[in-house]
Amino acid sequence: MSQPDRDHDIVVYGATGFVGVLVAQYLAAHAPKGTNIALAGRSGAKLAAVRDRLGVDWPIVVADASDTVALNRLAVSTRVVVTTVGPYVRYGEHLVHSCAAAGTDYVDLTGEVVFARRSIDANDELARRTGARIVHSCGFDSIPSDLGVHVLYDAVIADGAGELADTSMVVTGLRGAASGGTIDSIRSQLDVVNDDRVLRRMAASPYSLTPDRAAEPDLGRQSDMATVRGDVVDPSLRGTLAPFFMASYNTRVVRRSNALRGWAYGRSFRYRELMSAGTSALSPVVANGIKAGIGALFVGLTLPPTRFVLDRVLPKPGQGPSERIRSAGHYTFDFFATTAKGERYRARVRQKGDPGYAATAVLLGESALTLTADRDELPPSAGGVLTPATALGDPLVTRLRAAGVEISAHRA
Questions:
Q1: Among 36-40, 188-192, 323-327, whose mean pLDDT is lowest?
Q2: Furthest-apart CA pair in the chain: how many Å?
Q3: Domain that holds residue 106
């Protein structure tokens, strides 16, 4: 469905927050000439200060996350909304619904299973009717994971090597600071699920974001907290692999992409995410230490005494590292897959910049630009609550490669 004429091409909502400013800066430097961009948030004065700092003459849109009337006006004024306002389970539901109703494309940075599930249930059918592409998780969570498997699948299909079967993503390089927004999202989601047994069970399911759980294949237990010998994943890997901090969200996004494509990756497609703990004799100790640390953080944020301490030492929302630290960050995701025919394939997604800040600004900014500048090249879709791979696919891969992100796949 084509969008009617709008006042803006892109509205950056949350443009006064730390990541919101970075996204606005990226768009100011990289959006094609003539792209109409507006800054939005709840404070006109703070938005004006950001605009002055950027040296642009973009319009300002004032809208509080709880003001549904203002959010409806915002949604109908633009072709695409980019929002960095989280935790999304607390502040995001009204805006995404406004966009779905208005036929407005939408991208965000959520890594919250509960929010994404609620959005699917509330907005998928509506967005299909209006043609809105609602695309959650367009930052470090979960574009590298989703597009890494996407290019793997393309390479396997091009070679006629069968469907994907056992597929693992291994974080082989990572340097960056923990995002205060990410910590706050984890905190908010834990608050929600701890009070609701049904939500807790849903969030723990490997298929919590699937369109139809009953249609999913039964592939047995798929743990996000396992430690695994490297050579079990691929003969080239040494040492022990630890759980990856965001596996419990990213894996669900990738499985949703498979389901939305009619299980094109494969009915026996099993996907997990891990991280390298080194190759020394101590790697099993390190891997189990990482596993214990992740568990301790989640437990600590649910218990009042430890949460009191953690709330004072963990990064706060709206805070972030210096430009020097952001520039020094990087990540490398390596993917290892075996096809149904027994062929081995590898893929890599690698990017410079702090994953949660500098790198995420590129990923989110290019996602928005894909929806505006490359709309005619997007995968055919009647709208809906989609994933980066199913909504943006190859056009986003092309854009990210041009922006310096390595995305590759080949037969091993």
A1: 188-192
A2: 62
A3: 8-140+358-405
